[in-house]
Design goal:
mainly alpha
């Protein structure tokens, strides 16, 4: 097989590896990332998990078409330097070294499966390889997330409970906030106070609208007090566990991403079947049928 065919999927592997590291660089220094209830965070996790899957998928394609270990070592060696385009030298060295080990192990595993398999089934061969490699890549990202969060918490006052999480807790408890009130749901002062009393207030030089503003400010102050009390209580509860927060966040990060990857891995088989169908129809690859002799017992 010509070298260009062996390296056909290498550029796609490099591209998605860079996109993965770029997307990951925006997350690793944010300890509150997993606690955000924003829909954008959900899509960011989905995209990140998809990139883990695509990197693993294209590397597996490359490993199947390339049986030259020297070209594989060169390709893996190039991938080691890609983190330098995104991360600082320390983080790039960690992620490059670990991922080089995972890529090397995955290549060796795929080549062993090719040698021992009697019938080439691309989907059956690639699915476990992609799943295992994606899990190992998520493990590397979790280690990097742990180091980033640990440094971030050390530079600040430790882990602080996000305000968005407290707001959600207040909503679930039935408390209202000024930001969630609408003009239709609140009763104005003119609806609560008789008209003659409003006229008396105006005669005394008191604007009823100013009283409504005072009432709103008091409600806001009361809500802020509730939020502060809840946050202080939570901070006191987790204070003894502050040294372990970075470890817990890294574990949560790992299981969150592996859950998303497990959801997206359902796409591996149809994508692989389509890819090898196109490769076969375009003449890029071909298959040969071998008739192997078998020993039969006669009595």
């Amino acid at each position: 097989m010509p070298i260009l065919k062996k390296l056909f999927f290498a550029p796609f592997f490099f591209l998605f590896t860079f996109l993965l590291y770029f997307e990951l660089s925006e997350i690793i220094l944010n300890p509150n990332f997993l606690f955000s209830l924003d829909l954008g965070v959900f899509w960011q996790l989905l995209v990140l998990s998809g990139l883990f899957l695509m990197v693993s998928l294209f590397f597996s394609y490359f490993a199947i078409l390339n049986n030259d270990w020297r070209l594989s070592l060169g390709t893996i060696g190039v991938s080691i330097f890609i983190p330098l385009l995104v991360f600082r030298p320390k983080g790039a060295a960690i992620i490059g070294f670990l991922n080089a080990i995972w890529f090397g192990f995955s290549y060796w595993s795929i080549q062993q499966d090719l040698k021992t398999s009697f019938d080439f089934q691309a989907s059956k061969l690639i699915s476990p390889a992609v799943r295992n490699l994606a899990t190992l890549l998520v493990l590397t990202a979790s280690i990097l997330y742990f180091l980033g969060v640990r440094d971030q918490l050390a530079a600040s006052n430790g882990f602080q409970v996000p305000d968005s999480l407290i707001d959600s807790a207040i909503k679930l408890s039935g408390q209202s906030t000024p930001t969630t009130e609408t003009p239709d749901s609140t009763s104005s002062l003119s609806q609560l106070v008789p008209a003659d009393q409003l006229d008396q207030l105006k005669q005394l030089g008191i604007d009823p609208k100013s009283l409504e503003q005072v009432s709103s400010s008091q409600l806001a102050a009361g809500t802020d007090t509730i939020k502060k009390q809840i946050k202080d209580q939570i901070q006191k509860t987790i204070a003894p566990y502050q040294p372990f927060i970075s470890y817990l966040l890294a574990v949560l990060f790992f299981f969150t991403l592996t859950s998303f990857v497990a959801l997206l891995k359902l796409l591996i088989r149809p994508l692989t079947a389509l890819t090898f169908y196109l490769l076969k129809e375009t003449g890029f690859i071909s298959f040969t049928i071998e008739m192997k002799p078998a020993k039969k017992l006669n009595v």
